[in-house]
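CHAIN AND CONFORMATION:

***
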Amino acid sequence: MYQIEFQLAEQPLSGLASFPTEQPIADKSQLSGILAPKPVMVMLHGWQDNAASFAPLFGPLAEHFHVIAIDWPGHGLSAPRAADNFYHFVDYVDDLAQLVELLDQPQVTLVGHSMGALVSVCYAAAFSDKVASLSLIEGLAPLSEQTFNAPERLRQGIQSRQRYRARAQQRQSRSMATFQQALDLRCSVNDVLPEHIQPVVERAVLQREGRWYWRHDNRLRCDSLYRMSPDHIDALISALTCPVLSIIGQTGYRRLKLQHPEAQGWKKLKQVEVAGGHHCHLQSSERVAEEILLFSSKFNALAE
C-alpha cells in the first residue's frame, strides 16, 4: 500500500492506494496512464474509522483493481473541515463526487462500510452512469425518520453543538498514556480482536509529548440537524441502476438483513452473511474480499 493525497476544492483528502503516484493529485491529468488497464475500486470507511479499515482487503483486490481507500475529512490523516462546518452527511457525497472526477474513469466500483456504504448509495443514485457496482458492508440506505420528528431532530442537533462548544477545551486535553490504551478502547467499543483493529488505531492516533491523542475531529460526534424522510430513501433506492452486493455480519446490525429486498425497492441486490459483527470486513477479511471479487467480476472487465 502507498500513501496518497487528493486535493479537493476546499481541502486535501488523504488515503491509501495500491499503486505509487506523485503527490498531491490536484488534476486528473496526473493519473493519466497510471490507472490503465485495471478498473478502479474506491473504498469508503465508516464513521470514526479510516482508510486502514480496508488494509486486510488490499492484497486480493489489488490483483484485479487499482484500489484507493480514502480518509474522510476529519478522519485518519485527512484534515478536519473548516471551523464553521459540522460534517453534514451530504457533504461526504460531494467529497466522493470530487474524488471520482479527479480519477477521470468511465466508471468506478465502490466499496463502502457503514457510513461509507450510505454515502456510496447516495452517490450511485445521483450519478448512476459513474458506478459499475456497489459492495455495501454493514450498511444500506441512509438513516431516515418520519417528517414529524424534524423539529425534535433540529432541537437535538443544535443542543449537541452547544455541548460541543462548551466542552471543546476539555476535549482537546483528553489523552491516553499508551498506544495500548487506545487499542484496548477500540477493541472494547467495536468488539474486535487487537490484531483486527490495530491498523485502524495506528492511523487514528498521534503521539505528542509522551501522550496519545485521537486524530479524528470531535465535531463528528455532534448530532445531525436533519435526517431524510422514508420517501427520500425510497427515491434514492429506486434511482439505483447498478448491481448491489450487501455484506452483513452474523452478529452485526440485524435491521440490515433483508428478507425480500425487491419489496423494499432494491432491484439488483444480493445479500450474503459472513462471520463477525459490524466490522466483519476485519474479522472475515478473506471471505469478504472473495465475495466482492466474485460479485464484481460479473460487472467489470477484470484485468488478468
